[in-house]
Specification:
15 strands, single chain, about 300 residues, 7-stranded antiparallel sheet
Length: about 300
């Protein structure tokens, strides 16, 4: 799959079927839009989106991404898209809506079909709506598919709902809305090796700036290492038992059935259930006992799922 910042035509030479949107998280509502763009086999399936880093300063100061751009592109490639156009937001944010459709999508990308969600907006100040898109596209013989909202528990699925669930530690709800487990692939770094001294060595991963963090606590997780999933327990937040006040937030994962050097690697970590809050313990042994108990619960949780 080709990823480019330029509004260019697909390398295959076919006219393009373009899915339009930020697609942060690629939740079950986004998936419906993306699948619609994949339907016409005579067209090259493409995505127009934009980078989170350029989106944040312009639109929402405290915006937290559900996933990094690299993870988003990996999912789009697995879905079967030929090309992703991902420019900086600043490169097109001031274009008039009609100019954007005609110059960037139709002329630039060679679009013959466009797919978007019901609430898609574009152009200067977000003035362009789905009605604008349909009107301009019709003049050029371009088909538009406007996908209605997907609802879950009586409410439309949205990235905002997912962020709220993740921040509150409601991982089952977040995962239902996403259609997959919430997680990330971040580089493993060296910690202070306190877990090693307790007999519970942990995998330490640092969050990038602007990424959404689950609510502080201990979670039942699983991690992809050496070609298989391992049940694990992850603590995310500040560590009151071992850290000074004001220490940075950490993400530490204990994998009881794995041993090996993973420094510098970027294993996939998935969150499945909140277990308990992080609290200060009276002894290191009590902390070690919690870590081991959380790992045992994770093993039991995934064993039960495997039997279903």
């Amino acid at each position: 799959m080709k990823v480019t910042k330029e509004f260019i035509r697909p390398d295959s030479g076919k006219p393009a079927s373009v899915a339009l949107g930020l697609f942060d998280g690629i939740h079950i509502g986004h998936t419906k839009v993306l699948q619609r763009a994949l339907k016409n086999r005579e067209l090259a399936p493409c995505v127009f989106t934009y980078t989170i880093s350029s989106f944040v300063p312009q639109i929402k100061k405290n915006y937290l991404a559900l996933m990094p751009d690299e993870q988003k592109c990996a999912i789009l490639e697995r879905m079967g898209f030929e090309q992703v156009v991902m420019p900086d937001f600043s490169s097109f944010k001031d274009m008039e809506p009609e100019e954007f459709v005609e110059k960037m999508l139709i002329q630039g990308m060679g679009a013959k079909e466009l797919s978007c969600g019901y609430d898609f907006t574009f152009g200067k100040g977000g003035a362009g709506t789905t009605e604008t898109l349909c009107r301009v596209a019709e003049r050029h013989g371009v088909k538009v598919n406007v996908v209605e909202p997907v609802t879950l528990d009586g409410e439309p699925v949205s990235s905002t709902r997912i962020r709220k669930a993740v921040e509150e530690g409601d991982i089952p709800t977040a995962n239902r809305l996403l259609g997959r487990p919430f997680g990330f692939s971040l580089e493993v770094i060296h910690g202070n090796h306190i877990g090693t001294g307790l007999g519970t060595p942990t995998i330490n991963q640092n969050y990038p700036a602007g990424a959404l963090e689950p609510g502080c606590g201990v979670y039942l997780t699983r991690i992809w290492l050496d070609g298989r999933w391992y049940p694990s327990a992850t603590g995310i937040g500040r560590r009151p038992t071992v850290d000074a006040v004001g220490a940075p937030i950490t993400c530490e994962t204990y994998v009881p059935d794995f041993s090996g050097d993973v420094y510098g690697r970027r294993p996939r970590l998935e969150f499945h259930r909140y277990l308990c809050p992080i609290r200060k313990f009276g002894s290191m042994q009590a902390l070690s006992d919690l870590i081991r108990d959380a790992a045992r619960q994770s093993q039991a949780y995934f064993a039960a799922r495997a039997e279903q």
